Amino acid sequence: MPHTEKIASQTEASRFPLPNLLPEIKTNPSEPFYHFISGGAGVGKSLLINSIKQVLERFWIHQPNNKPDDIHILPIAPTGTKSKATITYMLTQAQNLQHKKTQNMQYLLKLCTETKYIVSHNIAVPDGISNGSPCILKKVIYGQLCEKGNREQIPIRAYVQFEKETTGEKTRQKLKNIIKADGIADKTWTPIQRICRSFSLNENTHIQVTRNQLPLLPSNAQTIHCSQSCTYKNILVFITKNLSRKLLYTAFSRVESLQGLHISGIYKKPIRATIENDPSLREMIRMRSEAQLQFSLTFPEEVKNNENIIALFHNVRSLNLHFPNVCSDRTLLACDIIMLAETWSQPADRYEIDNFTIVYRTDCASTKRKAFGTLIYVKGALLPHINILFQNESISGTNHSTVVALTVCSKTVIMVYKSPKCQWLVLQQQLQQAINTSLQNNVHEIAIMGDFNIKYQVSDPNFKNLNDFMIQNNCFMILDPTKVSTDHNSLIDLCFSTNPLTNAFIFESVTSDHKPIWIELINP
C-alpha cells in the first residue's frame, strides 16, 4: 500500500510531526494552522509533506456527505526555493489563468520512448499530475481524432512512468478500462490523454488558435526550481553569474554524493548568509528561539527504558487491512504489550511480528470477516514474566464482549472490548471476575484498558454504572477526560487503574478512527 509505505519510510526526524498534527486536523478541521518545517536536503521534508497530504485526503474522504472526487488538496510549492519562486504561479495555475502565449503547447512535440519529459499542464493536481511533474515516456498509442474526414494515425495517448508510484494512482484507477484495452500490463504506467488549449494569435487580433496535443515537454534538463525535492545520482549544474547562494544550495543538494556533482561554468563562493543580509535566516532564528512547536503527544519510545513496561491497546479496525502498517509502526513496536481489538481476522491468517509472541488470539468464526477478533502480542524479553490469569468471551449474535487479564511483574493488565450494543451488565460481570481473580492471586495493582463503547460523559446512560463500578473496585480514570479517543470526538477507549499515579496517554492513528491508548507501568 503506497500510503502505508510512505508512512513507514519516514526518517526518524520526520515521523514525529505527523501524528502530532492529526489532533489539530481532526478536532478543529476548520481552524488554520501554520507549521514551519526545515532541514537539510534528503532528511524527509517532501516525504513528510506528501504524507500529510495523503492523511488529509483520507480523513476528509471519510467524513459524512463527502465525495472522494470533491476532495481537492493543493500543495503550493511545499519546500525551499521552489516555494518563494512559484507560489504565485501555482495559485494562478490552479485558477486556470493564462500565463504563456501558447499555453505551454509546443508547435512541434517530439516523442521518444525511455526519454525524460515533464507534464506541461495541471492535469490532475490532487493525483500529483501537475505542471512540472517529471516522468519517463514508456509507450505511445496511435489512433484517429474524432474529426470528420480525418483518418490520419496520430499519437492519441501516451503512457508515462512517474518518479513516485503514488503519482497518477487515481488516474490509473479511473482509466483502468482504457489501460486494459491498450494492453498495458505494467501497473505503474499512467495514461496521459490529449488536451485542447486556445490562445490568441497575437495581441493585435481576436483570432483564436486551438491546439490539440499531448501535455508533455521534453525534459532532459530542468530548472533549479523544478528540481526541488528531487534526488539524483549524477547532475550537471550550469552556473551563470546571477545564481544566488540559495539557488546554488538547492542545485548542489540534489545529488546523492559529491562524486556525482558536475559543474559547467565558473563557481564563485557565495557571500555567507548573516542576520544582516538574509531575512530568511533572521526569521528561522526567531522561530527556533520564540516559536518552537510543542508536540501535544507523548511517544512511547521517548519514555521507554529498562525500568518500565509499556502496554498499548488499539481498536485497529481490521488488522487484515492494516497489518503492513502495524509491522512498520515504530511507535507501536516500541511497546512491550500490544493489545488489538476488531482485528477482522480468520484462523488461517498469519500475523507474526518480529520479536513478539502472540499470547492470546480470537478470530471470526464465519468465513465472512466482521468487526470481531482479538490479538495480544508480548515482546520476547518480557514473555517469561507473562501469565494469563483470566479470559472470557460473551457472544450473543452480533453482540459480544471480551475480557483478558494477564499479570506482568506483580501487576495485572486487563484488556476490555465491548461491542456497541452489548449490555453493560455482561461486561460488568466479566470485569468483576477478572478483578477478583487478580486479587486472589495477590496482585493488587490493576490497570484496565480497552474499548468500552461507553462515552465517558454524563449524557451516556451507562456512564454512571461504569463510574460507580470502578469506584467500588478502587479504580481511577487515568486518561484525560477532556480528550477524545475517536475521530468522532468521543471518549470511549478508556483506561482505569488502582494506582492513580499511573501514566496513561492517548496517541494517534493514521489508519483507524480509534486512537491507540497506552500506559506506563513502573517495575518494582
Automatic annotation (TrEMBL):
Pfam families: Exo_endo_phos_2. Keywords: ATP-binding, Helicase, Hydrolase, Nucleotide-binding. Residues 413-517 form the Endonuclease/exonuclease/phosphatase domain. Gene3D superfamilies: Endonuclease/exonuclease/phosphatase, P-loop containing nucleotide triphosphate hydrolases. Coiled coil: none annotated. GO terms for molecular function: helicase activity. The keyword Hydrolase applies. InterPro entries: Endo/exonu/phosph_ase_sf (IPR036691), Endo/exonuclease/phosphatase (IPR005135), P-loop_NTPase (IPR027417), PIF1_helicase (IPR051055). PANTHER family: ATP-DEPENDENT DNA HELICASE. This is ATP-dependent DNA helicase.
